[in-house]
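Figure 3 (text version): C-alpha cells given as input.
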C-alpha cells in the first residue's frame, strides 16, 4: 500500500511539471552528440530544486573509457536569486591525465576555458558561471607499488542557460556543448561535420522527480 501511495505521488509531480521544464527535458532527449559519447538518464538529486533531470555520460574509445561526467538540469519556477533565472545546469566532468599534461601549471585555467569555449562555440547565451577545477595525483606504495602514478582532472561547474521562447532554454544545444567539453577533456579530436548520432535515453518511471 505504501508503494502504491509513493507511486501516485510521483505521477502527480510529473503531471504538475511546468511546460518550460517539460520542453527543456524533451530537448535533452532529442539532442544529437558525437557517437563516442554514451549517455543515459539517471535519478536526479532530490533537494536542489523543485524539478530536476539528470544524465550521465561516458566517452568511449573501443573498450576504453576516456572520461565521464554528469549533467543535471534544475528548474525552480519561482526563480532563484543566485541563478538569476529559473533554470540551472550543473555538471561534473572527470578524466585521467597524461603525466606531461598533469604537470602543466596552467591546466586548471585551460580546462575552465574549455567549458566556456564549448558554450561560446555554439553561440549559447548563459550567465552566472561558477565552478572549480581540481587536479589530483595518486602514488601507490606497498602491495600497490607496481601501479604507475596516476593523475585526474575534475571539473565541477554550473551556469544559467538563458530562456528562449516559451520560457525554456535550448538545453539540447547546451548538452551538445557539454559533450564537446567531455570529448576535449578525453583528448578526442574535434568532431567533423555529420559526426553525430541520435541520443537514445532509457525511459525511467519518474524522469521529472523532485
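Below: residues designed for each position.
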Amino acid at each position: 500500500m505504501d508503494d502504491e501511495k509513493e507511486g501516485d505521488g510521483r505521477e502527480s509531480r510529473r503531471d504538475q511539471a511546468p511546460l518550460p521544464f517539460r520542453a527543456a527535458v524533451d530537448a535533452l532527449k532529442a539532442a544529437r552528440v558525437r557517437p563516442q559519447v554514451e549517455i543515459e538518464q539517471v535519478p536526479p538529486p532530490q533537494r536542489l530544486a523543485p524539478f530536476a533531470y539528470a544524465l550521465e555520460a561516458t566517452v568511449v574509445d573501443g573498450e576504453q573509457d576516456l572520461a565521464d561526467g554528469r549533467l543535471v538540469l534544475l528548474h525552480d519556477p519561482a526563480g532563484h536569486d543566485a541563478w538569476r533565472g529559473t533554470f540551472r545546469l550543473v555538471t561534473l566532468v572527470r578524466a585521467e591525465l597524461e603525466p606531461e599534461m598533469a604537470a602543466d601549471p596552467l591546466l586548471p585555467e585551460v580546462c575552465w576555458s574549455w567549458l566556456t569555449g564549448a558554450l561560446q562555440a555554439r553561440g549559447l547565451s548563459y550567465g552566472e558561471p561558477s565552478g572549480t577545477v581540481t587536479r589530483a595525483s595518486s602514488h601507490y606504495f606497498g602491495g600497490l607499488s607496481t601501479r604507475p602514478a596516476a593523475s585526474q582532472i575534475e571539473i565541477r561547474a554550473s551556469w544559467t542557460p538563458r530562456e528562449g521562447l516559451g520560457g525554456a532554454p535550448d538545453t539540447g544545444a547546451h548538452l551538445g556543448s557539454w559533450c564537446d567539453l567531455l570529448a576535449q577533456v578525453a583528448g578526442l579530436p574535434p568532431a567533423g561535420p555529420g559526426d553525430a548520432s541520435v541520443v537514445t535515453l532509457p525511459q525511467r518511471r519518474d524522469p521529472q522527480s523532485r
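Residues 53 and 207 are 6 Å apart (CA to CA).
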